[in-house]
Amino acid sequence: MSYDLIHVCRKRHSVVRKRSWAGIRQEVRRRAREELKAIEKGRYGNEPLLAPDVRLICIGKCLQLYSAHYGQVVDNNSEPLPLHFALQDIGTMVDQLVTKERPLPPELEDVDPVSYAWLRVLLKIKREVKVDEVNKALRAMQVTPDELKKLGLIVRGRTGRGRTYEVKQPNERLNALLEKLKSPEIPGGIQASLFDDAGDPVIRDLNLVDLIHLLIGLADTGQSVAPWLERFSGERPKVKAALRFINDARPDWKGPISRILPLLDETFLFNHIEAS
After folding, report:
1. What is the pTM of this model?
2. Integer Cα distance of 264 and 216 in angstroms
3. Domain boundaries, the chain
4. Parallel, antiparallel or unpaired: strands 128-130 and 164-167
């Protein structure tokens, strides 16, 4: 890497108005695209820049937009958006734009950083991977191994004296994901999965990778995924795009994926739920 980021700190002399991250991130994406075009036209010299340098330059330019509203950037719940989250999101967007080899489908452009890291770094790994490989790959995405470990996506490997990570597969995470969602594993169809004991809808926010692992794990063990597809119907375009992308990368998951994809057809799913 040839370039560094220089942080310039100044006192503010005016009131900064509150801005939503959803609005700013649209400007961030536009800024990243503009910077990429400028780099390709030779803004930093005629010699092609290495991919890590391109990422770092774009991240720096995008951070200017966040910092202009620092302290007044809020999320969808009007809560202050931490710098760490903004940096993760920016890193993910930039990496998606810079990646030339088999980019993710457009539906996954706004995928959460952890899921993006899984799709890019861990998807094809069936068992263990070197710690150093993971650390280097994650650095550009602003996601740490500790975040992946906390979610149960990786654990320390059993070989290599701690120099490897073991990548957890969907069937290995299924029970933990069901517990996380507090889904009663009892007969009763849709009601048992979608509502709690008080009859209230079960509302949980999942990373896309968790939802994908949940669906593949259920389908692989012969359990119904229809209630979960209804519960997370708003994520259907992302789920469908992700499963199609994953289907090419993991031939060993083609069986469960082939049982899920037809259910993502709106007419099929609606009729299936009505019949239940």
Report:
1. 0.72
2. 13
3. 19-101, 113-167, 170-275
4. antiparallel
